[in-house]
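Predicting holo structure, zinc ion bound.
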Amino acid sequence: MTMPHRLSVYLLLLPIACSRSRETPAPNGAAREAGTPAVADAAPAAPRPAPSGGDVPEAEPAPAPGAINTTPNEFLARGIPTFVLGTAGDDRADRIVAAQVGLVRELFKASATVLDDSIDVAAGASAWPPNPVVYGGPDVSSVVARLAPVLPLSLGPDRLAFGEREFRGTDLRVIAVVPARASDANGPGHPEFLLYAGTGSAAVAEINGVQHGQEPILVANAFGRLQAGRWERSPAGAVAAAFPDPPSPRIAWRVVERPLAPAAGDATPATVRFGFPEQLAPAGDEAEVIDAALRGLAVAVKKLGLAAPSSLSLYVYPDRRSKLSLTGDQGDGYAVVSANVLHVLHADPSPGGPLETLVVHEGTHVLAYAAWGPAGTALVGEGLAVWASGQYGGATLDQWKQRLDAPPRLADLLGAGFRRTPEATAYPLAGLLVAAAVDTVGLDAVRTHLLPAPASTWSDACVAAGTTAEALQSTVDGMLAR
Ligand SMILES: [Zn+2]
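Done. Tokens:
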């Protein structure tokens, strides 16, 4: 298909400097994941990149009093971060925050975690822990809720505003280093803090997968980075956001809706909203693409045993360049679990082919997150998706049993080791682990105990599920024996 020139225009508008795919797209089906706690990936070109791979950050001198426009990378390089968990939301929201912080902590050799209600906000900056990283908006974090009257940004269910500059949507996210503030008649002071928050009910779900780190303010939505900004101080001393650069390109989408047939004849099936670039004529195989994606989602629904799967949106990109330009990601596909959105590259839609298996994998991420909540480790989160699709990189799990040679121990993949291991080892091994776990204790126990377990409680979770970490390792070893 010939690409109209209009789409190329968007390529030129792309802020090239901030684009880097975390995963090399596999030849078939595998994809970059949105779930990566990606602090380390935020700024490959930064003079002082955020800590990665467990390196202890060098302590940085504190900023000059009144400094604004610290970037997240600079903030995280300053010293041991204290993650402030929001607990003001419902149980699901609190779990989302806790899981995200748990994943991000893996990137740091040292960090601290406190609950938001342990901070006496009214007492001002001195009541805060050092280097605070706050997760959640006012609906989730009581700290943000209590500071709302004095913050230079405000968040609602479908609205993010910086003074008069307003963003609308239920898929918005903001990553910002909020400048320190002294107590005054308007309200309490607070130290400089790094905020991860957004609109919608799952805004911080895998929020570290948003490419960030070099801007004091970044707004993103379900398509990725949307608008970078910085802080300005008025002569009177008030801090306000400014957005001098143009927003990232967005295009109009032609939407085709189809019911997502549930596994067990539900009366009100979920809906799949397919999005195709409006400026392009429909591809000749559009009907086949839709059918392939629906088959893939049906497989995911069936494998997960979901009686009431959530509705979702699935955007189809004609080629890698346009996907990169419009989402900042050039992988075959990725899931934005905070918004129930999948982005996939057009691929062979034949039955059981690359597009179908890609959608099983990415659809599993979205459907499982919506139904069951966050994965505690990338190992099980990815393993579930690989297991559901029955393959990785075009090879079945049975084929991978023959290919994996001297793979790492599962225990070494529970934390940050997973993302440091070549994907073509880590992913199929994760799929085999989930296959072994489902065979051993059943999917319900995997869902209840193993999926949400962070690395720190993995052994206990295995016992709660009815097995042990050692037994699962032995089962996987047995699969690989030859
Ligand atoms: Zn995945």
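The first helix runs from residue 5 to 13.
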